[in-house]
Amino acid sequence: MLADISGPELDVSEPLTLGGFLLEVCSRYADGEALVFDDPLRDGATVRWTYADLERESRNVARALLALGVSRGDHVATLMGNRPEAVAAFFGVALAGAVVVPLSTFSTEPELDHLLRASDASVVLTQPAVAGNSLASVVAGLSIPQLQHVVSVTEWPDFLARGDDVDGSAVDEIVAKTAPADLALILFSSGSTATPKGMLHNHRAPTLQFWVQSRLFGRTPATRMWTALPMFWTAGMNTAMGATLAAGGCWVMQEGFDPGKALALLERERVTEPYTLPHQARALSEHERWLATDLSALRCVYGKAVFAKHPTVNGDSGWQMPVGWGMSETCAFISAHAYDSGRDAMKRSMGTLLPGNRLRVVDPDTGETLPVGVDGELVIKGPTMMEGYVGKPREGSFDADGWFHTGDVGYVDEQSEVHWTGRRTEMIKTGGANVSPAEIEVQLRAHPGVKLARVIAMPDERLDQIAVLCVEPVDGVAMDAADLQTFLRGRLAAYKVPKKVVFFRPGEIPMTANGTKVADDRLKSQVAEMMGTS
Fold first, then answer.
1. Average per-residue pLDDT in the chain?
2. Taking a C-beta distance cutoff of 8 angstroms, is the pair 32, 220 a contact?
3. What does the pLDDT read at residue 22?
4. pLDDT tens-digit map of 455-502
5. Helices (H), 83-180
6. CA torsion sign, 30 to 34 to 36 to 39?
7. For the domain that residue 169 is a member of, what is the CATH number?
8. How far apart are alpha carbons 315 and 306 in whole angstroms?
9. CATH number of the domain to which 520 belongs
10. 506-510 long-range Cβ contacts below 8 angstroms, 24+ apart
11. Residue 447 sits in which domain range?
């Protein structure tokens, strides 16, 4: 049997445009609390928006943009941290008929120059700074021909007042004329070395992810979700913001991750679902106020996660963090296990295809479809697939039959579940065999003494390449190479166990500017010097 599978038929009754989505959820949940934020620009004062507030403010942004001369199809960038105005800006751009371009607040001045030129944005909605990184003044100082307006939240009242003379019916007319296939969104990748790629999406892509992910996570109007993940990542935009709003829940926002402030928010706001990266969860559990914090409202915690171990937490035993596979090109998930699929399923695979998606596993050299159970490149089609890369012809992004070649390696099993084993470009060829760094790193997540792990390829005279495991241990934990190699031998084939292990002190493993990915090129240079191969 060949590895050529399809997800269930797509059958969605909800609106599939960003403007339609906003108006629908704000109508359903008008009086419900949508956003909570302790605003540094207001001396930490707590801002609370209902869904009715969110609709009003988003409409005001749309009318102000129309007053500025923004037209259908124009590109408007948002450059903000997590704050209510950022959500209003995101949807306000869509309500005005424009294409929203969420930009990273981690960006340096040269990076912002590149992103704004590449995105062709004529307006930037921003704020003075995030985490000490100046934004408004930097953008205002750039010389970019098409950039006409830079608006900071400190100028918000005057900006919104521009729209007073724009009839509110103009917004409704734009929403009514907007189709799911119309262009809506540009996402930029956050790769560790390459120049960020821009991916152009239609309205269907993010809104379908909002509705689907809301169900995958089991969100309801009672959900109070906290996260500091930013909206310029698909996790922040889709899983945090969109999927919470789709269910009528409340997003307890944090602009930048601070474990002490996060714990205070979790307690004060009676958060039911914390949504963190692993290093953030660990930082919370290591904070001095961890045990003294009342986290009894938490329900969506799972397994051996740090939240489930807290003495005040009695979570929902039927809830597990959804597991899935996707990428920015598909605006997030292609396959997934829902929250109630069970721990065994979560550990077994990346789930089954979501509605409307198709997948084949092909030989990367010949393009031939491979049998079930055989590793190959994963190629896909689906309703949330990008229209193409910014600045490149569409035909350059897809093959002659319309398939997108992901560069990911994996296989499909007899139950049509998707298994991801790594990236083609990252596979380590050692002694004639292929080894996936990602597969090793995933297994190390179960080791209680490993804080950060990255596997890299280093040259070897005999084997061509060897896998080198770079590890930062948990503070105070003593371990040696043999400990980790023994741990991995119980979980992986012998040839996949790294031949060498290098230990690093806290902060020594080089990270990208946003602190979320290892800077592989710099890490390889460090390891080469340590191994005497540079």
1. 92
2. no
3. 98
4. 998 988 777 789 999 999 998 888 899 999 999 988 877 778 999 999
5. 84-95, 109-119, 136-140, 156-161, 169-177
6. negative
7. 3.40.50.12780
8. 12
9. 3.30.300.30
10. 506/451, 506/472, 506/475, 508/472, 509/452, 509/454, 509/470, 509/472
11. 427-531
